[in-house]
Amino acid sequence: EAPHNHANQADIGRKVRKASLFIGKPVIVLSALEPMDATSELARNANEKRKDIAHLYPGSKQVWVDSEHAIPLEKPETILFAIREVLPPRPSNTPQ
After folding, report:
1. 74-90 per-position pLDDT tens digit
2. C-beta separation of 66 from 30 below 8 A
3. Contacts with 61 (C-beta within 8 Å, 6 or more apart), sequence order
4. Full DSSP string of 8-36
5. β-bridge mates for residue 61, sequence order
6. Contact 65, 32 (CB under 8 A)
């Protein structure tokens, strides 16, 4: 197991919060309802952080998906729903 530098993680978190890349754009954070079942420090840390990850993107929405870690493989319809929710609607005369 690789050592974790918590000071570096805190610095990365500050940089993400300061980034303006997502301001004014819709963000949906999809989080697996099932926690990681590993007992490593990394798994415990990831399980704790995912509870509040949406705060990194002001105005975002966190959606809890009845899935384990592989949401795109286990629940692909959730990915499609999130994409459709943030994309502007198509004009009615546009083919699907």
Report:
1. 999 999 999 999 887 77
2. no
3. 27, 28, 29, 54
4. HHHHHHHHHHH--TTTTS--EEEEESSPP
5. 28
6. yes
Nearest to 86 by CA among 32, 28, 21: 28
Question: Distance between the two ends of the chain, CA-based, in angstroms?
Answer: 47
95-to-57, 81, 82 alpha-carbon distances in Å:
33, 19, 20
The 10s digit of each residue's pLDDT in 19-62 is 666 567 788 989 888 777 667 887 788 777 777 787 777 788 88
CA 18 to chain centre: 17
In one letter, which amino acid is 24?
A: G
Q: Which residue in this structure is represented by tokens 């929710």?
A: 85
